[in-house]
Amino acid sequence: MTTSFDDIDVLSELAHLAASCTRCRLAEGRTHVVFGAGAHDAEVMIVGEGPGQQEDEQGLPFVGRSGQLLTKFLEAIGYGRDEVSICNILKCRPPDNRNPAPDEILACSGYLASQISMLQPKAILSVGGVAATTLLETGQSVGKLRGEVHDFGESRIPLVVTYHPAYLLRNEAEKPSAWKDLQLAMKLLDEARRAPE
Ligand code: URA
Predict the structure, then answer these.
(1) Per-residue pLDDT tens for 108-152?
(2) Model's pTM, two decimal places?
(3) Taking each helix axis from N to C terminus, what angle separates 129-136 and 102-119, rounded to the nearest 10 degrees?
(4) 8 Å CB contact between 121 and 42
(5) What is the Å distance from ligand 1's center to 136 Cα?
(6) Atom of ligand 1 nearest to the CA of 60
(7) Best residue among 32, 81, 88 to mutate for probing ligand 1, ranked by most atoms within 8 Å of CB
């Protein structure tokens, strides 16, 4: 399934609405709402936790140090940043990069749900614990969830869990595991491309 022009219009309208969102307290401290970036017909959607300082300043997801590592990983599997869709669980930066509060995640959830349902990616790569536990509605750790293919939502979009690039920057030893996760995501995409629409 591809994204229609109508869906693109709805997504643009939603991004416009989100830009003045006041659904939770994070609206008070943000510089920009970071709605997401990338291709409207992307096959892969990357879902992270929430904007950090640089993302808040620039209004774009994953542009800081974590983002640079994510970009390298994507390039290693043959994707440019603009060929995938990149979004976060939270669209606004929590103060001092603290963990998102449950009510903030809930307040923001409709935006990501709409992004996923409009884009209908062939695979989702969930990076970090907040994204994994939110998307899969589980309390399990990334270490437990990674290495297998999960189903997301009613349309059962294949979802692979991996470590957050910020974690990998602090824990180099886990990089080979993240690499395996990306290869698993690639395998899914190959399978999805071969399957009839
Ligand atoms: N970390 C995230 O989870 N998302 C970003 O956009 C940046 C850093």
Answers:
(1) 999 999 999 999 999 999 999 999 999 999 999 999 999 999 999
(2) 0.95
(3) 70
(4) yes
(5) 18
(6) 6
(7) 88
